[in-house]
Amino acid sequence: MRYLSTRGAAPVLDFRGATLAGLASDGGLYIPEAWPTLGAEAIADLAGLSYAETATRVMLPFIGDALSEDELRALCEQAYGRFSHAAVTPLVQLDHDQWLLELFHGPTLAFKDVALQLLGLLFERFLTGTDKRLTIVGATSGDTGSAAIDAVAGREGIDIFMLHPAGRVSDVQRRQMTTVLSPNVHNIAIDGDFDQAQALVKTMFATPALADRFALSAVNSINWARLMAQVVYYFYAAVRLGAPGRAVAFSVPTGNFGDVFAGYVASRMGLPVAQLVVATNVNDILHRALSAGDYSKGVVAQTATPSMDIQVSSNFERLLFDLGGRDGSALAAQMAGFEASGAMRLTNAQREGAAPLFASARVDADDMALAMRWACEHAGQVIDPHTAIALSAARALDLAADVPVVTLATAHPAKFRDAVERATGMRPPLPARIGDLFEREERYVTLPATLAAVGDYVAQHAHPSA
Ligand SMILES: *Cc1c(COP(=O)(O)O)cnc(C)c1O
């Protein structure tokens, strides 16, 4: 399998190359040259398989000869063996046609573990036996940081620098990052918001003195391997609800458009997906883009769902590329316009391509709280605020009666205890495995949101690559 940049001007890479590179050198994102498909029979054959085996079958076509099937299976078993539920991503029924897909049983209690536990192993596997090192640089609005740090802490050949917006992630989220004291882990609090942190990361990648010398790599959802790992649970859930014989709808709490893009990939691979609901909070750039063709950024509003407080959704570019005829130079021009003015219109091809599959909804704080209460009162389920945004959107959908609707439950409610308590009166306890989080020692530095400050810090603490 070969991987192309959405902006058409970066080298074409194989799976290994695309995994290690993250962002493409022309500023674009890597995407497979063509979508592999699983026929109805291959999908039916997934029934009853373990999560790790499902993952092996769904991901194998993307890997090419970078790994053998047995090597891939061993990595999946290792990655998903660390989850606290035997199903890895269990389904929970809420009412006769509404379901939750619990994606938060990994080590850091958020869905990002599903992809990052595998990515950490892929990095290590691809670096072993070379004299190359990798310097992971990322920006997090909360959950990516802790999941990435957990996935690479103590691994040979890798340093990780994680930027988070100071004071804008929950205490649990911050402590899950800053209490990991392995020497290869570097936490940086940025005086600024998430978009500034993400922009700094992009600038570092475009600075050869850093990017080339330290072999910078990304773990943000711009890394293709992460998206690939997320495709798996769409298959796993849909097969359990009747696919390929029955179509399933998914409602996805959306920020950077990675999780819901994985649902789009599942659909392109042949999974019968009735609808993908892009649920946003009041930071609704994606809702405006999908409902009115208007992709224009506003000012980020802070909400109870920090992982969705985003005004620029990196992965949306992959959808625009795929729907816009896969024309790299046209997309590069469209994105350059957006980067210059902060706004762009979707083309007719992009809008018409998205319309049959995607629906979108903007959910405010009141409707989020209502959804949390509804889940408690009607199904005895305490859900986190991000999940509640998507559940609210799912319940407002008007679909054929026989279509099950699956809401992706992206974080454990204990990660957002204050918001859960405000809405439901219940304070979810921290699961035993992180019960002592508030007693652990923290380590991080606070830096201004400038390339000079952050670039210097990275240059002083990272290890040059051969
Ligand atoms: C990251 C995250 C999201 C948003 O996912 P994207 O792939 O960025 O759209 C939603 N909920 C939680 C809890 C998250 O951590």
UniProtKB/TrEMBL annotation:
Entry cofactors: pyridoxal 5'-phosphate
Name the Gene3D superfamilies on file: 3.40.50.1100, Threonine synthase, N-terminal domain
Task: Report whether Lyase shows up as a keyword of the record.
Answer: yes
Q: Annotated pathway, please?
A: Amino-acid biosynthesis
According to the entry, every stretch annotated as the Threonine synthase N-terminal domain falls at: 2-80
Q: Does the keyword Lyase apply?
A: yes
Give one Pfam family, short name only: Thr_synth_N
Q: Which residues carry this modification: N6-(pyridoxal phosphate)lysine?
A: 112
Under the GO molecular function aspect, what terms does this record hold? pyridoxal phosphate binding; threonine synthase activity
Query: What reactions does this protein catalyze?
Result: O-phospho-L-homoserine + H2O = L-threonine + phosphate
EC code(s) of this entry? 4.2.3.1
Note the CDD domains from the entry.
Answer: Thr-synth_2 (cd01560)
* Keywords, in A-Z order: Amino-acid biosynthesis, Lyase, Pyridoxal phosphate
Top-level taxon of origin: Bacteria
What biological process terms from GO does the record include? threonine biosynthetic process
Cross-referenced PANTHER family: THREONINE SYNTHASE FAMILY MEMBER, THREONINE SYNTHASE-LIKE 2
Family label: Belongs to the threonine synthase family.
Write the protein's name. Threonine synthase
Q: Which organism is it from?
A: Sphingomonas metalli
